[in-house]
User: Fold this.
Amino acid sequence: MDKQDLDNLTTKQDFCRPQKLTEKQETKLLEATIFEREQFKDKKPLTKDDIPNLAKVESSEHIYLAKTVENPCLTHEMKAILDEIESKFSKENPEGFFIIVSMTRIGAEQMKANPKIADKGTHPKGEAIDFAAKFMNKYFPDSAKVLKQILIEMQNQGKINFLNEEDSTSFWHVSRRLK
Assistant:
């Protein structure tokens, strides 16, 4: 698979996400996101009127935004985190790129993605990114290895919350860390 082939992929299932999560996967995901949700509990979910005030994210040499991205934007603070990830990635893997499958979701988009935490998660607050982990490991393993290492390092530095959801959603979920 080549980078240009990615333009033909239009659903999250094309990026290895299961059609529906099992009850066990849902429970594990809810438990894993407790700390993250607690950090952002006082921040209200975004509406479509908030979208123009967010930082726009575009595909670049090292970032591929999949057609599955609902709203290509993040809070300015979370965009700074993505910029740092991209900067580190470009130094470690100048020829590589990583795939983002989801960022900011509002209203029905979030209900469709994960109704159990629709208004409590970080996606509806512009504070989260999902990377196509399982897909990248399969088709772009060198890039996946570099990206995962960067995410682990940034988590160890206390900059991000990094959830490896490969066994549930097939993605790597990243949010900004506040505490």
About this structure: The longest helix spans residues 76-92. The chain has a mean pLDDT of 89.
